[in-house]
Every structure is written in structure tokens, then in C-alpha cells.
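ok so for the tutorial part 2 we go from a plain amino acid sequence to predicted C-alpha cells. step 1 is just haveing the sequence, like this:
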Amino acid sequence: MATAAAARWLLPQSQHKPLILALLLLVFAAQSLCCYSAGYSEQERDRVAFLPGQPRSPQVSHFSGHVTVNEKNGRALFYWFFEAQEQPAHKPLLLWLNGGPGCSSVGYGAASELGPLRVSRLAAGLEFNKFAWNKEANLLFLESPVGVGFSYTNTSSDLTSLSDDFVAEDAYNFLVNWFKRFPQYKDQEFYISGESYAGHYVPQLADLVYERNKDRKANTYINFKGFIVGNPITDDYYDSKGLAEYAWSHAVVSDELYDQIKTVCDFRASNWTDDCDKAMSTIFRQYHEIDIYNIYAPKCNLAQTSVSSSADEALKYSDHEPFRRRIRMFSGYDECYSSYAQKYFNKADVQIALHANLNGMHPGKWQVCSDSILRSYNFSVLSVLPIYAKLIKAGLRVWLYRWQGTRDWVVVLRRSPRLAYQDTVATVVPEPTGCWQICGVPWHHHGDNHRGWPPGTHQQACRRAHADRHLPSR
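step 2 — the prediction. this is what the C-alpha cells look like for a chain of 474 residues:
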């Protein structure tokens, strides 16, 4: 201040304003540099130097740790972040969420599906995934909601208050605080993605980001461009109807039971009748000896994992719990993979390297999926289709991917002339030609309806023709 005062007297009056402006700019720059320095300091503390069993080549730049989302309740979510393999400063940022509710994006998304480091067979170590998505994007995996994986809370009542709104708010707070820790990514294009019950998490978080972005003065603007969902839980009516149709069309249940279901079940009702619950429970009992993620594959013969126990537990209490809770099962498929991930991420040296459990803040063993969250989750949103219509109309990019084979029972597309779920999506994203497409592939060309065609013939041509198109809105 003394220096500024002296300068004011020594300089002509006409030069006072430029000097003051220069001083203000210097102060602002110093404050910004301080904030960025603090962010980079936290960021480097989260850098993962090396994980047990990690291959020495190629090198992987990754970070992990906790980000506080609610200081009052002591809630913090755990993340694992991989920078893009090349030119990360010029690649988009992609947030990945797994479903459940209650399943880990670290155990599934990062370490078995699209991350660059996969847990190897029998948890012997890690292996490089040559198909990793960080070839094209910076990948951010989040264990959400609180209580999943290494994410924790110091307020036990949080664990019985979980709902879609609760999860979206925490995930949004995570993003705001994560960008403070990684400020270099704040202006890069940002996308949200996920699978299974993340079919609820993703569009609801997308909607929240879209709405909060309207307040440009809040300094929390996120350069959000769109979202991607794979095999998503989307609408209770069509999802539930599809479960019954799939079981019948694949001879899991009889014609008589399917006819009964069509008679006694009103899938549009929020509460089903006892007769409907009883009929649908029969479907679940058929899967005690069948892998529900691949009905033609044997079940895992290793010791029972948390994932397999989650499925069996859901089937056991299926006569007593609302059916809506039973269909919200974990996402991802590998008949034995969960046991490898469970073993690897419970190793003390792995947890230390990941900055995951340094102070014993996470009680109990790390689990791929949490049975307690699945059972206590408050399911209140019946459909996210209105969000699709809203965000598509707003100009955001939306990619919905549905794999239609004949094996995956949990999130299904039946092979009859037209699936109920397809009618639903068609009402939101119709094609101008009168047909409609999932990921650029017409509904009648999915799966193996045309066994005589060379695999992927029409799909490839159609994908090329529509690869750069935005889905139209109605």
C-alpha cells in the first residue's frame, strides 16, 4: 500500500488509473496462481507412482484419492483418474459410473472394462488393456454413491438416505471440487457415461450439470457436451416388461407363466399386486443355476464372491421385497472376475498405493458390489426418458448403446418384431425416414435376426452413414 501511495504522488494524474488497473491485475493473477498451485499440490499428492503387479510398459499416468462432497456429514467419494495416453491436454474428459446401485466403478469400469489397467486372472497382478478408452479421452472413474468401494461417510444415516437425487447432488459436488484439484481440465470438453443402473445416474447428473451451468456467475461452469449410456436402466414399465418377455422368448419360463404375467401384471403401476409379484418371482427362481449375465455360460466355479452372493441374495428374498428393488442388479459381466478384483483391491499394499485406505477410514473389506446399498436404496424415479427429450432438445449429444445378443438377461432387448423398449426410445429419438436407430443401427438389424448376413455387414455401413449425426428431437 505504501508503494502504491508513493507512486500516486510521483506520477502525473493521467497515469493513476492505468497504474491502479495494473496493480489490480497483478493481485488477481497472484490469487489465481495461488489457487492453481494449491490444486496442483493436491493433485500431485494423488498421483499413483506404481501399483503392485503393474506392468512396467507402457507407462500409465494415473491419480486416485478422495474428494469431499459434504463437509458437515464427512462424506467423500473415491476416484481413479487416467490421463489420455497421448496429448491429454487436447483430449476430452470422460466420467464413468457403474450401476447397481452399489457397484464399484473401480472394480468394474476401470479394472475390467474400459480402463488401461485390468486385474489379471486370480488377482496375480495387472495387465495393460490395449482397448482402453484413454486412447481417446481422459478417464475419470468414480465410486458412487457414498458407501460404494472406498467412498465413505462419517454419518451413518447417509447410507439409508440414498436416492437418485442424493447421488446426483453428491456427484455434482464431486465434479466441482475435483476440477479445483485438476484445474487444467476445467475447460476441456466433458462427457458423462455409464451402464446399467447408471442409466439413471448419468442422465440425472447430466441434467443437474446442465441446470447449474445456467448460472455463469457461480464460477462452477463445466464444459459439458453430452452423455453416453450402455445397456441402461431407463424406464420401469419397459424395463420390467422386457424382463418377462426375454425370459419367455428364451424358454426360461413356460407359455403358461408368461400368459399369467400378461394377465395379472400391470407394469405401469408403481405397486404391483401380490399375484404379479408371485408370478415374477417365479422368473427369478429359474436363475439359481444360470448365470443371469450369460444364460448359455456356466456359473463361476470359484468361491462365491460378493457379486454372485448379491445375485443369489436378491433371488432369495425375491418373494419378500418389492420387485423394483430386485431388478436393480449390478452391471458388468465376467463369471469369475469379481473374485479377482475383490482379492486385488483388498491387498494392503494396493490400498496404500491407491491412497484408498491410509487411515483406516473405510471399515470392512472392499467389495465389488454392496448388498446393503442395493437393499436400502430409495427408488423414486420411474423413468428418465423426459430428461433425454429435454437435453436432446437443448442440443447436447446423447449416445445410447444397447447390445442385443441372446445371452444377457439383466438388461434385455427381446427378438420379437418390435420391442417395447425400442418403442420408448423411438418416441424420443425418431428417425426422419420413419425408422429409428440405436447407435446408428436400425432395430430390425440388431442381434442375430438375420443369421444369413455376414457379421456386421449392415451395422458397419449404417454406422459410417450416421456416425456424425446428432440424434433429432421431436
